[in-house]
Amino acid sequence: MSEQETESRSDIRRRSALKAIFAAWLVAATLDITAATLNYLFTQGGRLTILYQFIASGVFGRSAFSGGLLMAILGLLFHYTIALIWTLIFYFVYPRLMAFHRNRFVTGIIYGLVVWTAMNLVVLPLSGVPHIPFRPVQTTLAVLYVVFCIGVPISVIVGKYYSVEFADRSQAEIDNETLTHS
Fold this sequence. Notes:
There is one protein chain. By secondary structure, the chain is mostly helical. It has helices spanning 3-43, 48-60, 68-93, 104-126, 136-181. Helix 2 (48-60) packs across helix 3 (68-93).
């Protein structure tokens, strides 16, 4: 294989990886914020800016609630940034844990539980968001949203990318082996 073909394959892999990350991130973040928005509208009513300001309060504390539309927009940006971080974590961890490769759906459920747990036991307590009392129904819904809107889509999309990537690598190794022994 020539150096140019190797570079071309490398560029294709890089673009393919970026597409997988981008797709997983946008799908997961959009599903999650949509679920949160609909849940907020049905359970709380009122202005949506408050929901997005709540997200911004992680950084700005209670002052986010008096920050108007700017804080709501920042809240949405923070939401998408956090989803990107979780997508990248999964992307880089996935190839190192062979158990993930068996069933993308189950892997997504497990990853969603990991994300929910980390967010609720580490990230949110360290942030400036106001404390929300435990409510079993809301907590159950929140877990389900994170599992099925973050964990499963990221797992399915990134897992699909890696299944193609691993198949391509295996075929390339077979091709190189054949060329070497010819």
